[in-house]
Amino acid sequence: MTKYEKKIYDIVNASRKHLTADQIYTELKKEYPAVSLATVYNNLSKLCDTGLIRKVTLEDSPDRYDRTEKHDHLICQKCGKLSDICLDDLTHQLKTQLGDNFLSYDLKVFYICPDCRKRSSSKTTV
Amino acid sequence: MTKYEKKIYDIVNASRKHLTADQIYTELKKEYPAVSLATVYNNLSKLCDTGLIRKVTLEDSPDRYDRTEKHDHLICQKCGKLSDICLDDLTHQLKTQLGDNFLSYDLKVFYICPDCRKRSSSKTTV
DNA sequence: CTCGAAATTAGAATAATTCTAAATATATTA
DNA sequence: TAATATATTTAGAATTATTCTAATTTCGAG
């Protein structure tokens, strides 16, 4: 692991914020001002390939990078805010249906976050 | 509903192939050779907004458009092929946890499709 | 028919990501 | 240590899906 790979891994794992490549780049530049965005992308895809982090693909937003520890995502349909949620594991059901060919799953749950709920009950949505 | 909106809706619903905007454009041009890609995008987002079709966002692939009838997606991790799968509905569990704020969910299941499985068992993966 | 709104068009603009080729750093081994 | 090989990083160009813009066309209501 190179210093950049290690540091990018640390940044992703330390954050619970689902950072974009660009945010990671900004963070990394604090320590290594000369680093390039290409290096960030290179290392992010290397880390994804080896399974040390995972990529979260969303609509209308650049990809985000996340720790691999098992959890699902909750996305506010109004403001787009992304947070984590723990749900019953679907693995058993999927293994029964797909056998050894099953690899993993990605579950996204859409909802209205408390902030947006508050906003829309106090005044009409713009 | 304009003629384009209607026809695009029909194309998406008639296909079980999860078409990209560009594929829909190609299909639509058979009947309306003068149509522009912008019109396809305009109508696709209108149809998504009204909930008549849904957009499927994937990694390393342009967005695809799909009928709304409830079903989940199965994605081959090797070749990227997308197909449909029917699974137990998670709605009950999600409503219990999130209440009225719950809107919907999007589940993607990753596996190795039969074709790729066959290929990799007969010879070593390149 | 005429007006105005909505839809459509072509093409430019945008933005995230990937690619390319040169430069740099690191490791290997003599 | 020097010579060489290999891997990483860099800057910036290229790519690609999608959105935006402004002009044009279509079409229904009066």
Structure description:
Two copies of one chain form a homodimer. Chain A is an alpha+beta fold and 126 residues long. Chain A has two domains: 1-68, Winged helix-like DNA-binding domain superfamily/Winged helix DNA-binding domain (Arc Repressor Mutant, subunit A); 70-126, Dna Ligase, domain 1. Chain A is built from five helices and six strands. In chain A, strand 4 and strand 5 form a beta hairpin. In chain A, helix 1 (3-14) crosses helix 3 and helix 2 crosses helix 3. Chain A starts with a helix and ends with a helix. The mean pLDDT of chain A is 91. Chain B binds a DNA duplex (30 and 30 nucleotides) through residues 2, 4-5, 20-22, 34-39, 41-43, 45, 62-63.
- Reported by name, the CATH topology of the largest domain in chain A is Arc Repressor Mutant, subunit A
Low-confidence runs of chain A: none
Tally of individual domains of chain A: 2
Question: How would you sum up the global shape of chain A?
Answer: flat
The CATH class of the largest domain in chain A is: Mainly Alpha
Superfamily (CATH H level) name of the largest domain in chain A: Winged helix-like DNA-binding domain superfamily/Winged helix DNA-binding domain
* SSE order of chain A, one letter for each helix or strand: HEHHEEEEHEH
- Which chain pair has the greatest contact? A-B, 30 and 30 residues
Largest sheet of chain A: 3 strands, antiparallel
Kindly report the oligomeric state of this protein: homodimer
Rg of Cα set of chain A? 17 Å
Which whole number gives the mean pLDDT of chain A?
A: 91
Helix count, DSSP H or I runs of 4 or more residues of chain A: 5
